[in-house]
Amino acid sequence: MKVLREDEATRILDKYGLNYPIGVLIEQTGDMPMVTEKLEFPVAVKISSPDILHKTDVGGVKVGVGREQLSDTVRNMWEAVTKKCPDASIIGCYIQQIIPGGVEMVIGIKKDPVFGPVITLGLGGIMVELLHDITFRLCPVSYEDVLEMLKEIRGKRILFGYRAYPVCDVKALCDSVVKISRFAYEQEWLVEADFNPVVVLEEGKGVQILDFKFFYQDEDELEVKKYE
């Protein structure tokens, strides 16, 4: 499988009304002034390549990069990833605004050969691997379906004001899951998708998808279908 580049993926998020932090794809270090004009620091830096599925494993992600560090970080990352993945096509680096706070969730899509796209929802970040606290449904799902999914998550209390955590924007989370399920159902080219972390902010402040990956196999079908 290949992963869709970030600037193309954000066009799809826009189409479905999904929120994500502002970001800039730079294809060479000379584009750096554009980043400093649009973003507040510190930022996250991610390598952009359709051939690298797990960027962190090859040193392709760095979070908390300051303005003075940005040029060196991009240059060093580009060189390091090129050495580790010499056959990969490197588009550039995606520089993204950091969103502080909130509760991290994970939303996933996987296309089953029999049942079609299946959506997963659970606690995100490292918690998804540590607790595996997730639930499943066939796509598409309704708002009421998502409320039922939340009831099945053991750690759901963290979304509703548990101890030091504020009450989260559960309505915005449910809306986002519904939109993602519709995207998965409508886009035949999609094989798999990963939204992790999805940060659920305080009530009334919405949801931000911090990291997103869309996987595909058929290049011809992708070009025809992805923006319809």
Q: What's the arrangement of secondary structure elements?
A:
Blueprint: E1 2-3, H1 6-15, E2 23-26, H2 32-38, E3 43-48, E4 61-65, H3 70-84, E5 92-97, E6 103-112, E7 116-123, H4 127-131, E8 134-138, H5 143-151, H6 170-186, E9 190-200, E10 207-209, E11 212-216, H7 219-225
Antiparallel strand pairs: 1-11, 2-5, 3-4, 3-5, 6-7, 6-9, 7-8, 9-10, 9-11
Helix pairs in contact: 5-6
Question: What features would you describe in this structure?
Answer:
The chain has 228 residues and is an alpha+beta fold. The chain has two domains: 22-97, ATP-grasp fold, A domain (Dna Ligase, domain 1, 2-Layer Sandwich); 103-225, ATP-grasp fold, B domain (D-amino Acid Aminotransferase, Chain A, domain 1), CATH 3.30.470. Helix content is 31%, strand content 29%. The strands form two sheets. Strands 1, 6, 7, 8, 9, 10 and 11 form a seven-stranded antiparallel sheet that branches. The chain has a four-stranded antiparallel sheet with strand order 2-5-3-4, covered by helices on one side. Strand 9 and strand 10 (207-209) form a beta hairpin. Helix 5 (143-151) packs across helix 6. The model has no long low-confidence stretch (mean pLDDT 89).
